[in-house]
Structure formats: C-alpha cells, structure tokens
Amino acid sequence: MEGGRANIRLQAWILGIGVAVMAVKFLAWHLTHSTTLLSDALESIVNVVAGGFALYSLILAAKPRDREHPYGHGKVEFISAGIEGGLVMLAALLIIARAVQGLLTHAPLHDIDTGIGLAIAAGAINLVMGLMLRRRGRLSHSITLEAGGAHLLSDAWSTVALVVGLVLIRFTGLLWLDQVFAIAFALYILLTGLRVFRRSVAGIMDEADLELGERVVAVLEQHRRPSWVDVHNFRMIAYGSVLHVDCHVTLPWYHSLEEAHREIGAIEAVVNERLGRTVELFIHMDPCIPTSCRICALDGCPHRKAPFAERIPWSIDTVLSNRKHGA
User: Fold this and answer.
1) pLDDT at site 83
2) Among 260, 198, 272, 188, which Cα is nearest to 228's?
3) Half-sphere exposure for 259 (CA within 13 Å, toward CB)
C-alpha cells in the first residue's frame, strides 16, 4: 500500500511539472512559428491529459479489493496505458497534418535562437522525469508509470533531434526542413504510441508474459523439494502490480491434508520471497500416481512402485502443458 501511495505522489508531481513544460513549449512555438516546435507542444498536451488519467488510474489501482472486484483494481493500469498510447498516436497524426499544411503555405520562422533554448530546457526536464518514472515503474511493476516514463523519454530524445533540426535550419536558411523534421518526429511518436498501446492490449487480453513466467518457474526449480513431484498446467495473469499464478502441483498421495497444505505454503513463500513482487498462487493439488515414481526423487518413499529414473527440469516449456510428467 505504501508503494502505491509513493507512485501516486510521484505521478502528481510529474503531472504538475508536465503542465509547466507544456507552457514552455507553446511559448517556444508562439515566438518562432515553427511547425517542429508546434509538434513538440502538441505532444505535451497528450502528456498532460495522459498524466491526469494515469494519476486517476494509480489512485483506483491502489484501492483494496472488494466484493465487485475480487482481484483488485489493477487492470485499470492497462486501460490507462492504452489511452495514453492512443493519444500519442492521435498527436502524431495532428503533427503530420500541420506539417503538410506548413509545406504548402511556406510560413516564415522568427526568433529561432530563443525557441532552441526553450526546447532544450523542456527536453532536459522530460529526460529527468522520464528516467524517474521508468525506474519507479520497474521497481513497483506499474505499467502506468513505465508507459509514462517511456513516453517522456521518447519526448526527450525526439527533442534532441528537434533541436538538431532547428540548428540546421538556423544555419542553412532552408525553412522547408522545419516541416520535414516535424513529419519525421511525428512518425517516431506514432511508433512509440503503437508500442505502448500494444502492451496495454496484451495486458487486457491476459497475454502470457513468458519472460516473467520463466522467472517464476526458475525460482521454483531452484528451490524445489523432493516432495514437489511435478508442476504442470501453469498459468499467469497480472492485475497491476500483483501477479496471479495458478498451477497443478503433484504431491505424494499419502500425505495428510496438513502435510500437503504445508508444502503448498512453502511454495507460496519461496515465490514471494525470491521474486521481489506480490504473487498470489492458486494451486491445485494432484496425488502422485505409479507412473510418477520414475521422476520422483523422494528418498524413503514407502509406496514406490518403480525406481527413480530422471529428474525433469522445470522450465516455462515443461510446465505449461495440462498433463502430469511421467504419465
């Protein structure tokens, strides 16, 4: 919960600073009449709108689960990221339309030196904010903060290209380059928005994160006990920062309910301790069968039907199937 409040405070600060950066960018455009600077300013509107929705989504995601939302409210972060990605792509299309109009009208530029200075200042602020958001998002497993950080970083790096373009225009006098750089800038923004939108859709559709799943399975493999005969039918869903895992675990059939519960508790503890994030495990217990003996390394089993033959390593490839190993 404390991590959620820290995320909310950080996003609130980022939103406030984003409003100030937007004002600086529009001032730069007003002074220069540069389409390239206007494209940068238009993206700042997206930053502020998306930042406001991101703040709301973080507040909602931090709410405890209730009867209507038994898995919590973390899914709203995927919706927030999707809206941000969509707004970024819309801003890119508006920039392209404005640039094409500028190519037809041949509008002159004014006070380009001041515009360059203001763009550099705004880009530097976005770079710092983007790095902060991305780092915090990765630490707290918040796709909202990660998406916001990625957006601000793309804005900062594109500002670098923008400044280079304006300097080139300043020394060559080729005003049409302003529109060309604006279009190139817009295409980069469009790609960034598409990536963010794609990730949000993947989260809403519960697309498997195989890289994260591999990490969970690697923890189980590293700390597996002989009584954990088998893991299969492994599935994973992320709800905000909370990861939900359900799987089947094969245990010795003669374990008492208390012993089986203790083993399942050990699995839950090792995953939560070693993975570095909150994980909820829903584990279906399967009793071992005679064909399980050849992959069971439990010493002193009084009911063994066949000698131990091989230890099957657990990996994301071996645990996804809904079938007991050795069967």
Assistant:
1) 79
2) 260
3) 9
- 3-class SS of residue 313: coil
By three-state DSSP, how is residue 33 classified? coil
Mean pLDDT of 251-257: 93
Spatial contact of 120 and 166, defined as CB atoms under 8 Å apart: no
Nearest to 43 by CA among 102, 84, 14, 80: 84
DSSP structural state of residue 65: P
Q: Tell me how far the alpha carbon of residue 68 is from its chain's centroid.
A: 25
Q: What element of type H or E holds 249?
A: strand 242-251
Distance CA 166, CA 33 (A): 12
For residue 14, the 8-state DSSP code is H
From the CB of residue 302, how many other CB atoms can be counted at a distance below 10 Å? Answer: 6
Q: Which CATH architecture has domain 210-319?
A: 2-Layer Sandwich (3.30)
Alpha carbon distance 320, 245 (integer Å): 12
What 3-state DSSP class applies to 308? coil
Dist. CA 297–CA 190, nearest whole Å: 54
- Helix 176-204 vs helix 76-105: angle between axes, to the nearest 10 degrees? 160
Q: Is 252 left (phi over 0), alpha (psi -120 to 50) or beta?
A: beta
| Confidence grade of residue 255 (pLDDT, cut at 50, 70, 90) | very high
Contact 243, 277 (CB under 8 A): yes
Domain boundaries defined on the chain: 2-204, 210-319
Separation of alpha carbons 147 and 134, rounded Å? 8
Which SS3 state, helix, strand or coil, does residue 253 take?
Answer: coil
Tell me the HSE value of 14 on the side-chain side, using a 13 A CA sphere: 34
pLDDT tens digits, 44-67: 787 787 788 778 877 877 777 777
Q: Tokens for 313, please give them.
A: 């390593």
Instruction: State the amino acid at position 63 in one-letter form.
Output: K
Q: Which one, of 160, 162, 139, 164, lies nearest residue 149 by Cα?
A: 139
Which superfamily, per CATH, for 2-204?
Cation efflux protein transmembrane domain (1.20.1510.10)
What's the pTM value of the predicted model, to 2 decimals? 0.61
